[in-house]
């Protein structure tokens, strides 16, 4: 239903009625009357009960918008991933590429995208049965990798990420129709209180927060360094934090945080000598493949929004 409406909405040649308006309007010219809009795809609505997550875990994900498994990978697997992490970071091959994003005030690598293409080890991890079984259980259907990245957040130099919903950006700038995507963040270096762990607002995935400010041309060249457009109003953030607070899962390398595409999250700068490096795979349901951007003049590069057919011409 929704995809058909969104396709009709994008094809302005059709005589579209009012029913084809975008249910997730954002990048508005002025503050909206309704600061919280209903979510059309209830979280884990189509979750199945034949996957690795038990009923309580699925219920917790639906309630909170995220789920933390502290011991998802064993020490041997972690050591292998950490070797690959160092290899990628030390390889000068990528440093001038558009998919390698530096910190706003230094040449330190902030994020490396498309890592499931750059590394066979991370490519196999993205397709691991353990990860796929979890996300496809939660989403209730087959998926493809919409985006992958390593956020390195080096000691002292790693800056933070402002509060945001990933779906708000992926809808506005990549054309993701509905909230049918889940991010899997695997902790590659210990996440502790002082090195900028991922922070999430429980329950914030339940409504869509329209953001004010039109999307600038090539916004990603700025937003991936420090996001300003597509961040919710502080009054709304305050209300959601007042309801259910903030949580920041911390723990050893090998932990897994699954979070819904619309769960508000962010992180502080790294104030410690210890890197906070996490790898993220974004799994989008195949029947939710991106169409045209809903609030941008043209789609972003493929390293930010891969095609459902698993190809990538960028490397
Ligand atoms: O724009 C994006 O796709 C990226 N930006 C953020 C802050 N999180 C999701 C994603 O990596
Ligand atoms: Fe994000």
Written account of the structure:
This protein is an alpha+beta fold. The protein has a single domain (2-6, 25-288), classed as q2cbj1_9rhob like domain (Jelly Rolls, Sandwich). The chain has helices spanning 2-10, 55-64, 75-90, 115-118, 120-126, 129-139, 166-174, 220-223, 234-244; strands at residues 37-38, 66-69, 100-102, 109-113, 143-151, 161-164, 181-187, 199-200, 207-208, 256-260, 265-267, 278-285. The protein has a 7-stranded antiparallel β-sheet with strand order 2-10-7-12-5-4-3. A 3-stranded antiparallel β-sheet has the order 6-11-8, with no helix packed on it. The protein is globular, with a radius of gyration of 19 Å. Mean pLDDT is 94; it is low at 8-19. Ligand 6CS binds at residues 147, 149, 161, 164, 166, 169, 223, 227, 304. Ligand 6CS binds next to strand 5, strand 6 and helix 7.
Overall structural domain count: 1
* The first-level CATH class name: Mainly Beta
CATH architecture: Sandwich
Radius of gyration: 19 Å
Which strand order does the major sheet show? 2-10-7-12-5-4-3
Low-confidence stretches: 8-19
Ligand identities: ligand 6CS, fe (iii) ion
Give the SSE string. Answer: HEHEHEEHHHEEHEEEHHEEE
* Proportion of beta-strand residues: 15-25%
Structural class: alpha+beta
Query: Mind describing the biggest β-sheet?
Result: 7 strands, antiparallel
Let me know the average pLDDT: 94
End-to-end gap: 36 Å
For CATH, the homologous superfamily is named as q2cbj1_9rhob like domain
The percent of residues in helical segments reads 25-40%
- Discrete helix count: 9
Tertiary shape:
globular
- CATH fold topology: Jelly Rolls
Can you count the beta strands?
A: 12
């Amino acid at each position: 239903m929704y995809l058909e409406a969104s396709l009709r909405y994008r094809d302005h040649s059709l005589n579209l009625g009012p029913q084809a308006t975008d249910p997730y309007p954002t990048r508005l010219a002025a503050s909206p009357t309704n600061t919280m809009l209903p979510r059309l795809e209830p979280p884990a609505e189509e979750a199945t009960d034949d996957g690795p997550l038990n009923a309580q875990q699925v219920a917790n994900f639906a309630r909170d918008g995220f789920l933390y498994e502290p011991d998802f990978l064993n020490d041997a697997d972690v050591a292998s991933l950490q070797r690959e992490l160092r290899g990628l970071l030390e390889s000068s091959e990528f440093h001038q590429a558009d998919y390698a994003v530096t910190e706003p005030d230094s040449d330190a690598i902030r994020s490396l995208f498309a890592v499931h293409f750059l590394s066979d080890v991370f490519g196999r991890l993205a397709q691991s049965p353990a990860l796929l079984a979890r996300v496809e259980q939660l989403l209730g259907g087959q998926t493809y990798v919409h985006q992958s990245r390593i956020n390195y957040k080096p000691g002292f130099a790693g800056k933070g990420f402002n509060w945001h919903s990933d779906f708000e950006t992926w809808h506005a700038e990549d054309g993701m129709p509905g909230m049918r995507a889940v991010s899997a963040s695997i902790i590659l270096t210990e996440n502790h209180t002082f090195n900028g762990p991922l922070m999430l607002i429980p329950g914030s995935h339940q409504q869509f927060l329209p953001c004010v400010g039109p999307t600038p041309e090539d916004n990603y060249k700025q937003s991936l360094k420090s996001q300003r457009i597509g961040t919710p109003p502080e009054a709304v953030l305050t209300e959601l934090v007042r309801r259910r607070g903030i949580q920041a899962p911390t723990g050893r390398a090998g932990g897994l945080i699954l979070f819904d595409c619309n769960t508000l999250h962010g992180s502080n700068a790294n104030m410690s000598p210890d890197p906070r490096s996490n790898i993220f795979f974004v799994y989008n349901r195949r029947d939710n493949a991106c169409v045209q951007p809903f609030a941008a003049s043209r789609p972003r590069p493929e390293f930010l929004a891969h095609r459902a057919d698993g190809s990538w011409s960028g490397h």
